[in-house]
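Question (not urgent): is this output format expected?
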Amino acid sequence: MPNDAGFDEFFGFLDQTHAHNSFPEHLWQNKNEYLIQDNWFGRRKVFAPDLFTARTLDFLSGAGNQPFFVELSYTVPHADNERARIDPVGIDVPDFGPYAGESWPDVEKAFAASITRMDADIGRILALLKEKGLDDNTLILFTSDNGPHKEGNHSPDFFSSRGPLRGLKRDLYEGGIRVPTLARWPAKIRKPAVSDVPWAFWDFLPTAAELAGLKAPGGLDGVSIVPALVAGSTIPRDYFYWEFHEGGFQQAVRQGDWKLVRQAPGFGLELFHLSDDIGERGNLASAEPARVKTMSELFRTARTEHPLYPAGA
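Got this back:
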């Protein structure tokens, strides 16, 4: 329960599989079940992301001058994986919007419409912040939890969603884990800029702590990215480490522009130099044995064994 983990108010899903369905029969409002009767008996009238937008607007309408934190986790354009087994359109959306007349497959119309609808909702939130005089000193971060997917009968190649990157969601190649972040904070970020400084979600807590004038808890892997946000500075860091257990134990580590990947047990090690090879096409492992040895040691030392997520399983 988010209310037991520091959130004053919560509205949404408590289970990620439940969140595949954007027309749910119920959600959770704090610790109480919130019934959506218009979606009962197979009806699909109330779109959960619309409710999330409405709740956010309602919260911001009542926000005074005290600092606040809002995490708005839209579920689109995630697929309804279960519905996709019986319906060729496995992307939930109320309608195809401006794409209804396109000659695209219906699932791609739905995919595009869900994103356009989300964009419009974020525009409403930005407009309200400006109306209330809060936008100048409100930091907004917008990002995604993974790269493009091929779920719900959607094709990630239809809109060239991954560009030159290799891999998709569930891969530890860049196509699976490299996502863009947009940051807007007019009082501090005064000029439009593009930053190549990499960071990861585990950097958010120390970043939020610094912004709040607090000391981050000890023992964290992350670092504050405030210097990158406000000054475009680099962030001192030794390495990034990832592991993934769905479909076979995978690991990746990045040091500077060098990245070492082991996609699955039994697969060989692949070494890439990202600034020269963003698509991870040229494996340099055989040409850099010393670097491979050093970086592969992080596969062992960067992780903590856990009974639910054992190495190699």
